[in-house]
């Protein structure tokens, strides 16, 4: 039992004590390439079934794979962004198994000699802390096709459009300790992939999927037996699946059972995992080097050339935002999550109060966009207009409260905040005589309360402020109202 | 014999250019020959209308003075080469009705150079065999001693038999462990396996990707040079294709071999070689000496492991390469209640015994727990075999060996696969090392069957291989024609 009574994420209280989760992730990221890994067929999403299939993809007799060099570059770029070792020699292997949507009868992958070796990334947790997760490897492989079992009562249909599409499999070390960390890890990887441009990270379209290896142990003990949950396509599902799988394992272990190493599927309707196949049923993939392909070889200087094309990456950008705009590391970590966030922010915050801009962007804008089901790229408020709004607040032209109304107006009308303020006469009133007039009116209308206040009911001060603000329709400068009221009621 | 059949590829090409006869006449003569020799079973598919159209087009080019290197020359194609809109079965039941929508690079090169296609030639199923007996539609008969029903060798048995029986002017073959050279030896023709990477593998039904290599079967060394000139070339569609220019081999035919060093590997003269072959091997050594070459004993110590290594690597690759014949997208399918059952019945019925045997061997040697002991070790030994050759080629220019330990045998005689595998004992080492080799006929044994001799050259030295083979060919003066040839 945890001493505070509140469990840390990634821990489960059992009858016999507290269990810790050990998690490793395999992320499959589809490379943003026009054509497939070993054929010239289009890799685009959503085309009519079997319309993007070359002779190579359909594994016609005598067809041979030819590597798509663009994909190699993307893998190397990603490897560099993961602070990983780039292997100048890597080998493509065949992973052999039979399935109707695998035309060759093998998947071309990289087994013993991947293109990218060990690396590490830093992830940001919700509590503002950071932790480092090790990368085991990154390798290139082909995607399989799609089997459709629900189109006909007795037949299955096969769509080979995905067959041969280039994937990068990014394998983490078992360094992840909670579902939340797993979520943050996937977010960070997705962010890096998008910065680099190697993958669009679109989980709904299946461009990014994860297999999660989960085991539990008592603190300080050896790793337990793990189960692999296959093919999770949202961060929410990843978090749910890991939590539920870990709980399942704790239940088994505590009732004296043993974990069977197996592959499991996450059922999104029940929120639980179920067995797909046990280790005994696991395929023997008979990996061996693909004799149709030469080993991939490249020089250090080529890697250096690729390195030069890398954009500034989230970690470095984050540091820069904290320095240049004096925002908190936590806000910075949110802003660098996506390249377009950071681009938007830098435009909006230019010449403005960085902290205030970050607040308005993260809290108000992101909130409003989410409510409207919009993204930053189709935001009705431009970065320039958000900057102007922040400027109006900083200069005291409008109060924060009025700014929220202006913001709502901006979301619908797309007008500039200064126009909205002018049109609606929302400028803040900071003129002493104007405000004094209002104060006098409030005092004369509330003589009894003034007496109570002067008799010691200090709490009534807020009431007077509220009345003045109400009278000004929210436009009075609250600071000045405060000061003048204090003077008047001495 | 029709006078037209007497021309070999080179002389026919000259005669065509000189308009002594037309391609249409020549092609017609070959169709008559094909009919006369049909009992040999060399052809699986004849495409007469298509051939005649090609011949007409060639005649037009010849008349316009725009003829290409192989203009109007009728040749046969081993059924391992995919030919657009023409049935390509690899002699297997599983592909019995398969018609590619594409043309292999090598055959396209031939048509681009003006050659006329006669049809598709039988071979062992998926090129797995040394006697042509694994072909789904039955074996081809060797035109030599035709009444004794001798094996034409394999796997390019149909190609060798067609060229020997004068029912093709030349033919394409593929060689994985000897599949061009051994049938060439058995049928008394010339068979050249180029350096691995010389000819594109694109569009050739794959057997063992790291070994498969296309090459010509012809009547003479000159014809082999002419054919390979057109077949070879870099192809960006094959990642293992060599990006190297090959010089015009015709220029190397009569370079001679004065001062060239020829190695005689001591490991290739062992028990089990027929006495006639030993006799002609010694004769060949003398002929080369007489032509001005220096003969040196050499050693290739890892030769004894070549066959076991080959029978691990080739089946391993084949087990994976043949996984695509699953009844899902093309080829034969036996319907069944479940996917696994469909695979079992389709592949069980579609593949013959030898193919199944090799798929099983290959699957076994790649399985977890056995991979290191078999496949990985075989790859290591393969490297040693290659190093043996590298060392020897420091000392000599070419290596001379018999092509086969025996001459052709009767069909149905070798039932035990291991005895059958021994046929390739002299051809497999060069295949494993990726080296070019040529087998040419140098004489007949006591029973009247042809004997082949093999020359092996260093990587990409096809020009030198051609010069040396031509020198030997001149000395051997092999002018015999089989009794099963078209008359």
Topology overview:
The complex is a heterodimer of chains A (490) and B (487).
Chain A: E1 11-14, E2 17-30, H1 69-81, E3 89-90, E4 93-96, E5 106-109, E6 119-124, E7 130-142, E8 146-148, E9 157-159, E10 166-172, H2 179-196, E11 208-218, E12 227-232, H3 235-254, E13 262-267, E14 272-278, E15 288-289, E16 296-297, H4 300-308, H5 314-325, H6 329-335, H7 339-349, H8 354-371, H9 383-394, H10 400-413, H11 417-424, H12 432-445, H13 447-454, H14 461-471, H15 478-488
Parallel strand pairs in A: 12-13
Antiparallel strand pairs in A: 1-2, 2-10, 2-11, 3-16, 4-5, 4-15, 6-7, 7-10, 8-9, 11-12, 13-14
Helix pairs in contact in A: 2-3, 5-6, 7-9, 9-10, 12-14, 12-15, 14-15
Chain B: H1 9-17, H2 23-36, E1 43-46, H3 48-64, E2 74-78, H4 105-112, E3 116-121, H5 157-164, E4 171-175, H6 181-187, E5 190-193, E6 213-218, H7 221-231, E7 261-265, H8 275-290, E8 294-298, H9 306-321, H10 339-350, H11 353-366, H12 372-395, E9 398-402, H13 417-421, H14 428-433, E10 437-444, E11 450-457, H15 462-476
Parallel strand pairs in B: 2-3, 7-8, 7-9
Antiparallel strand pairs in B: 1-3, 4-6, 5-6, 5-10, 9-11, 10-11
Helix pairs in contact in B: 2-3, 5-6, 7-15, 9-11, 9-12
Structure characterization notes:
The complex is a heterodimer of chains A (490) and B (487). Chain A is of the alpha+beta class. Chain A has three domains: 11-306, no CATH class; 312-424, no CATH class; 432-488, Arc Repressor Mutant, subunit A (Orthogonal Bundle). In chain A, 38% of the residues lie in helices and 19% in strands. Chain A has 15 helices and 16 strands. In chain A, the strands form four sheets. In chain A, strands 1, 2, 6, 7, 10, 11, 12, 13 and 14 form a nine-stranded mixed beta sheet that branches. With 487 residues, chain B is an alpha/beta fold. Chain B has a domain at 3-251 and 466-476: Amidase signature (AS) enzymes, CATH 3.90.1300.10. Chain B contains 15 helices and eleven strands. In chain B, the strands form two sheets. Chain B has an eight-stranded mixed beta sheet with strand order 4-6-5-10-11-9-7-8, with helices on both faces. In chain B, strands 1-3-2 form a three-stranded mixed beta sheet. The termini of chain B are close together. The model of chain B has no long low-confidence stretch (mean pLDDT 96). The interface between A and B is large, with 31 and 44 residues.
């Amino acid at each position: 039992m945890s001493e505070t009574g509140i469990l840390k994420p990634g821990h489960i209280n059992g009858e016999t004590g507290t269990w810790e989760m050990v998690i490793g992730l395999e992320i499959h990221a589809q490379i943003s390439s026009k054509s497939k890994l070993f054929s010239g067929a289009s890799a685009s999403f959503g085309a009519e079934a079997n319309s993007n299939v070359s002779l190579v993809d359909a594994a016609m007799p005598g067809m041979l794979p030819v590597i798509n060099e663009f994909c190699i570059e993307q893998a190397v770029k990603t490897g560099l962004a993961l602070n990983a070792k780039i292997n100048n020699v890597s080998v493509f292997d065949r992973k052999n198994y039979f399935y109707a949507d695998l035309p060759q009868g093998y998947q071309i992958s990289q087994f013993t000699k991947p293109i990218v070796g060990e690396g590490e990334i830093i992830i940001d947790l919700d509590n503002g802390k950071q932790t480092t997760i090790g990368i085991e490897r990154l390798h290139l492989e082909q995607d399989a096709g799609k089997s459709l079992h629900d189109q006909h009562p007795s037949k299955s249909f096969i769509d080979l459009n995905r067959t041969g599409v280039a994937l990068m499999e990014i394998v983490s070390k078992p360094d992840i300790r909670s579902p939340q960390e797993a979520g943050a890890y996937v977010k960070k990887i997705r962010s890096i992939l998008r910065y680099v441009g190697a993958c669009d990270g679109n989980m709904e379209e299946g461009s990014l999927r994860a297999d999660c290896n989960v085991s539990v142990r008592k603190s300080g003990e050896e790793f337990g037996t793990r189960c692999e949950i296959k093919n999770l396509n949202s961060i929410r599902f990843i978090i749910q699946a890991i939590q539920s799988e870990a709980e399942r394992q704790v239940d088994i272990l505590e009732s004296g059972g043993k974990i069977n190493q197996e592959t499991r599927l996450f059922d999104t309707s029940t929120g639980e995992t179920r067995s797909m196949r046990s280790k005994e049923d696991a395929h023997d993939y008979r990996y061996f080097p693909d004799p149709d392909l030469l080993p991939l070889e490249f020089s250090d200087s080529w890697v250096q050339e690729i390195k030069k094309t890398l954009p500034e990456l989230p970690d470095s950008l984050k540091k820069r935002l904290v320095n240049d705009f004096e925002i908190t590391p936590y806000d910075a970590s949110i802003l660098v999550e996506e390249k377009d966030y950071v681009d938007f922010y830098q435009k909006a915050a230019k010449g403005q109060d960085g902290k205030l801009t970050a607040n308005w962007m993260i809290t108000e804008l992101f909130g409003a966009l989410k409510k409207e089901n919009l993204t930053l790229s189709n935001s009705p408020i431009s970065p320039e207009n958000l900057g102007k709004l922040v400027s109006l607040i900083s200069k005291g032209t409008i109060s924060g409260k009025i700014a929220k109304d202006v913001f709502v107006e901006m979301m619908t009308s797309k007008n500039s905040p200064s126009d909205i303020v002018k049109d609606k006469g929302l400028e803040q009133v900071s003129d002493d005589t104007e405000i004094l007039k209002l104060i006098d009116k409030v005092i004369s209308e509330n003589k009894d309360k003034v007496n109570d206040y002067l008799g010691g009911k200090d709490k009534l001060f807020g009431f007077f402020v509220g009345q003045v603000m109400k009278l000004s329709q929210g436009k009075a400068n609250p600071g000045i109202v405060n000061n003048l009221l204090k003077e008047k009621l001495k | 014999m029709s006078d037209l059949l007497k021309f070999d590829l080179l002389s026919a090409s000259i005669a065509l250019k000189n308009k002594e006869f037309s391609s249409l006449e020549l092609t017609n003569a070959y169709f008559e020959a094909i009919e006369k020799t049909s009992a040999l079973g060399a052809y699986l598919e004849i495409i007469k209308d298509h051939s005649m159209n090609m011949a007409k087009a060639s005649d037009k080019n010849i008349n316009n003075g725009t003829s290409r290197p192989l203009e109007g020359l009728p040749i046969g194609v081993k059924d391992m080469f995919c030919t657009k809109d023409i049935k390509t079965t690899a002699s297997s039941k599983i592909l019995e009705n398969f018609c590619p929508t594409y043309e292999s690079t090598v055959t396209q090169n031939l048509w681009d150079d003006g050659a006329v296609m006669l049809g598709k030639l039988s071979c062992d199923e998926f090129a797995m065999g040394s006697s042509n007996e694994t072909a789904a539609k039955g074996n081809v008969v060797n035109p030599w001693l035709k009444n004794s029903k001798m094996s034409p060798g394999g796997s390019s048995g149909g190609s060798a038999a067609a060229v020997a029986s004068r029912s093709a002017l030349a033919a394409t073959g593929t060689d994985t462990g000897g599949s061009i050279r051994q049938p060439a030896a058995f049928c008394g023709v010339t068979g050249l396996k180029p350096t691995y990477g010389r000819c594109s593998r694109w569009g050739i039904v794959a057997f063992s990707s790291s070994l498969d290599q296309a090459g010509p079967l012809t009547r003479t060394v000159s014809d082999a040079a002419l054919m390979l000139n057109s077949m070879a070339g870099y192809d960006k569609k094959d990642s293992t294709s060599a990006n190297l220019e090959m010089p015009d081999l015709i220029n190397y035919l009569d370079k001679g071999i004065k001062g060239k060093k020829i190695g005689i590997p001591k490991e290739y003269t062992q028990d089990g070689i027929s006495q006639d072959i030993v006799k002609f091997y010694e004769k060949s050594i003398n002929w080369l000496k007489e032509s001005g070459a220096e003969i040196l004993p050499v050693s290739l110590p890892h030769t004894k492991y070549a066959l076991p290594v080959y029978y691990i690597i080739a089946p391993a690759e084949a087990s994976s390469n043949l996984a695509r014949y699953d009844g899902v997208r093309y080829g034969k399918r036996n319907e069944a209640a479940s996917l696994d059952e469909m695979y079992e019945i389709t592949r069980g019925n579609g593949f013959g015994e030898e193919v199944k045997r090799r798929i099983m061997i290959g699957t076994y040697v790649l399985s977890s727990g056995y991979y290191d002991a078999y496949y990985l070790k075989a790859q290591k030994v393969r490297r040693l075999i290659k190093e043996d050759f590298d060392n020897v080629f420091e000392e000599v220019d070419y290596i001379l060996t018999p092509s086969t330990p025996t001459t052709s045998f009767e069909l149905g005689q070798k039932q035990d696969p291991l005895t059958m595998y021994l046929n390739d004992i002299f051809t497999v080492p060069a295949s494993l090392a990726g080296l070019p080799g040529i087998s040419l006929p140098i004489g007949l044994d006591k029973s009247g069957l042809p004997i082949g001799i093999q020359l092996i050259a260093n990587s990409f030295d096809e020009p030198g291989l051609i010069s040396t083979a031509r020198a030997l060919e001149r000395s051997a003066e092999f002018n015999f024609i089989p009794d099963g040839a078209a008359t």
